[in-house]
Amino acid sequence: MNAKRYFSMTTIFAAALSLVFSCGQQQAQQKQIAQAQKEARVYKIGLSLAITGPTSDAGNPYSKGVEDYLRFVNEEKLLGDDKIEYMIRDDQYKTDVTKRNFEDFLTEGMVFYLNYSTGSTLGLKKDFEEEKMPVVPASFHAGNLVDSNYIFLPIVSYSSQMIGLSDFLVSNHTGGTPKVAMFIHPSAFGRGPVEDTKNAVTAGLKMDIVEVVEHGKDLDNTAMLKRLLSKKVRYVLCHTVQSPVATLLKDAQRLGVIAQRFGESGKLTFLGVHYTGGNDLIALAGSAAENFYWSTSYTLTSEAGSGTLAQLALAKRYGRDDKAANSHNYTNGVMVAQIAVEAIRRAKARGVAVNRANLYQELLGMNGYNAFYPLTTVGPVSYSATDKEGVDTLQIYRVQQGVFKRVGAPFVSEFTKKVM
What is the pTM (predicted TM-score) of this model? Predict the structure, then answer.
């Protein structure tokens, strides 16, 4: 890439990932900031996640996305002379280590926290309440929001995604009520969407959930796949991580039972929620991933757009390899950092102190005309006191010739509105 084009891409990134205001608005905000901030200040953001150990395939690029965007904010002075101090620690997916990291961050004066796993988010929920700490996790488990005021999901929950994916399935199926199996992770993370999806069926979503399979560590799914086919199942809805899905797809390919057409009779069409997909799945499953359908709210670098151009420029700027640069987990890390920075920017613009309480209020005010458009997602981030799932819209992607490509336009399922 020549220097002129690279400069252009990074300039686009600066423009794309900050809100665009008129000159008059910019001048007014600059005056407010000048009055409220007499001298440069430092705002501390903490992140504890699995950079190594279990799920590090997601956590590692996620941490790079957070770090790179916050470095960019400081270098490009997106908060004026004020700086972000980011404290990023590896917890190896261990909740007790996450808790220690969180407590250490508190002693350092953290004003915004980025958590990671479902287990630690649930485990520290009371701590977040006691400390009144605004938190954006990498886990989209709907249970995170139960009896919680301070947890904000970056995008719609796994449950909302599974219902939306099921709605897509039903809308595109032909020939009676589709028979469906669910292939889920044996944990709270995996089980979370099952009951909610069943509630959507009760509410009128016309599909028959024939079986729910909690996968183990088995390396061969032959018997299970044959059993599902004997029950006339045509669709398998997956909610787990990439590795078991890749094994499932390779077994299905070996048996010759992957559908070439959506809902093909006598074959299986595979669909999955956020952490089942992405480039890591294609790398693991190879050609067996072809025609896998996947839901997320993030933009992908396999689809051209200003957000993806900006992401690639950011990764290039900080020397990330192609795998990290094109990972949706890197996108996810950038996006949660964007939310934190935007809350700080809005507090500064209003001339109020940048502290936990005010950042919490800024998050609650991100709705309607004040919704936040990060461009790393297919829709705006919108929060309120009664809605703490950020991006409500979903995009369906499908693997075609080895890459994920969009299927249709972003949407919100009517059944999600009924059930969630």
Answer: 0.89
